[in-house]
Amino acid sequence: MESLENGEKSSEFCISVFGLGFVGSSIAAAWLRAGAIVEGFDVSVERIQDLKNPRTLGFEEAVEEAFDKGLRTGKLRLYSTDFASKTRSNVKFVCVPVYLGKDKRADLSFLKSAAAIVGSTLKEGDAVVICPSVPPGTTRKVVVPILDKQSGLIAGKDFDVIYSPERILVGRAVEDIERRYPTVISGIDERSLNRAESIFRLVAQKGVLKMPNIETAEFEKLAEGVYRDVNIALANELAMVCDELGVDFWAVREAANSQPFSQIHVPGLGVGGACIPVYPWFVIESVESTTTRIIEDGRAINDSMVDYLVESLRKNFHLNTKSKVTILGLAFRGGVADSRLSVTYRLVDRLRKSGFDQLRIHDPLISNDAKVGDILTSDFHEALSFADLVVIATDHKMYKDYDWESLKRDSKLKIIDTKGILRDKSVSPSIEVYGLGYGSNNPKLIEGPFKVGTED
Ligand SMILES: NC(=O)c1ccc[n+]([C@@H]2O[C@H](COP(=O)([O-])OP(=O)(O)OC[C@H]3O[C@@H](n4cnc5c(N)ncnc54)[C@H](O)[C@@H]3O)[C@@H](O)[C@H]2O)c1
C-alpha cells in the first residue's frame, strides 16, 4: 500500500467502518486487501458475533477471504461496544442504511445515530466518509451538525468530511470497489476533497471522479438508480405493447441495443433490491416545485407489473383458487442470495389476496426466509411437480441452464416466463410457455398474459 500524503505509514494505516452490513463489509474487505488495519463497528452484537465466522454469512468469496485473513492476522478488529476508547483510526467510513419510510421519505434514523457515535470518536485531523445514498443536502444539513455537536470540533476546520457513494452490485462488490468503476468523491471543502482523493486512490484502480460539491455527489448516485428504474419501466411498457401488437420484444431489444444509443433494460415483474426502487423517492422528496412525472410514472409502472400478472392468471389462464402456483426465484436478481424488497414478496401477497393459497417458492441460493416461511423450498423438482402453473420471477442461472426438454409430466404445466429466459429454449411437450414480451413468437400466446388494460 502506498503511504498517504499526510504522512501515515502504510503498515499503520487504520480505518474504521461503522455499520458492517453488505456495503460496510465489502468496504472493510477492500481495505483489508489493500493492507490497512480495519476497525469494524456495528451496533448489533449479533452481527459482530456472526462476522467472526464469515464463511457462514453468504458473502462473496473475496469478502470471506479478506475477513478470514484479517481475523487470523489481527488486522480486522470487530467491536459492538466501547469503541470510542479503543479506536485509533483517523479515517471513518459510515455505511449504515437509509431506508424508505412508510411515508415514502428517507428514514435517516440510522444515519443520525451513527453520526452521533462517530462524532463521539472524532479527533482533530480525522476524516469522516459518508457512504449511504441520501436525499441531496443530507450530509451537510443533517450529518455535519451532529458530528460537530458530538465531537465539539468544527467540520472543515478540525476534521474533513467526505461524501462518496458506494457504486456496487450485490455479488461482486469488491471487484466494483477496486477495479470496475472510478470512485465518485466529494468534500465539504477543498481540503476534504483533496483528502478524499489521496485516500481513495489507495483502493480505486480506476481512479476518482471529483464532484464539485457534496450535493452533486449525493444526487449523482440517485440519478444512476433513477435511470435504471425508469429504463426498466420503459422496458416493461414496451414489452406489454409488444404483446398487444404480437411483436417479439426480445428480438426488438436485441436489435435496438446493437447500436450504442439504445440501452433498453430487461423487463420483469417490477424492481427489487435495497436501492433501485428506493432512490426515485429520495429524488421526489427533495424538490418542491419541479415536476418528477417520469420518475413517478416509472415507479408506478414497475409496481403495477405484479397486478398485471395476477389479473391475467384469472382472465387468460382460467386459474382458480385451487390452482397450485410455484414461483421460481425469491432473490431480487439472478445470481444473488439477497431478497430485500424482492417482487416475489409482492407476488405472494397479491396471489394470497386473490385467494390463491397453494403456493411454493423455489430459490437455489436462499434456503430460509422468515417472511415466506415453509412455502420456500430448495427442491427444484418438487417445486415443479407441485405446480399447475410456474412463474419465473428471477433470472437465476439454474433456470437458464435447466434442461427444460427433459421435463416429464402427466398433466400440462403452464409456465409464465417474466425474464425472457425460455424464449430461445426447446421445451418438453409437457410444458406450455408464455412470456412477458414474447408477442406472436410464442404461438400459444394469443391474448398475452400481460395485455395492457386487462380487467377482471
Ligand atoms: N445493498 C446495496 O447493494 C447497496 C449498494 C450501494 C449503496 N448502498 C447504500 O449503502 C447503505 C447500507 O446498505 P447495506 O446493504 O450495507 O445495509 P445493511 O442493512 O446490510 O447493513 C447495515 C448495518 O448497519 C448496522 N447499523 C445500523 N445502525 C448503526 C449504527 N448507528 N452504528 C453502527 N452500525 C449500525 C446494522 O446493524 C447493519 O449491520 C444503504 O442505505 C444504501 O443506500 C447499498
Main beta-sheet annotation: 8 strands, mixed
The chain-level structural class is: alpha/beta
> Any ligands, ions or cofactors bound here, and which?
nicotinamide-adenine-dinucleotide
How many DSSP helices?
Answer: 15
Assign a percent range to the helix content.
25-40%
- Shape field: globular
Mean pLDDT: 91
Distance between the first and last residues' Cα: 63 Å
Got a strand count?
16
User: Percent of residues in beta strands?
Assistant: 5-15%
Oligomer: single chain
- Spatially, the strands of the biggest sheet line up as 3-2-1-4-7-8-9-10
Give unreliable regions as ranges. 5-9, 443-447, 451-456
Work out the radius of gyration: 24 Å
Walk me through this protein's architecture:
The chain is of the alpha/beta class and 456 residues long. It has 15 helices and 16 strands. Helix 9 crosses helix 11 and helix 9 packs parallel to helix 12. The longest helix has 32 residues, at 214-245. The radius of gyration is 24 Å and the shape is globular. The termini are far apart. The model is unreliable at 5-9, 443-447 and 451-456 (pLDDT under 50). The chain binds nicotinamide-adenine-dinucleotide. The site of nicotinamide-adenine-dinucleotide has 28 residues, from helix 1 and helix 5.
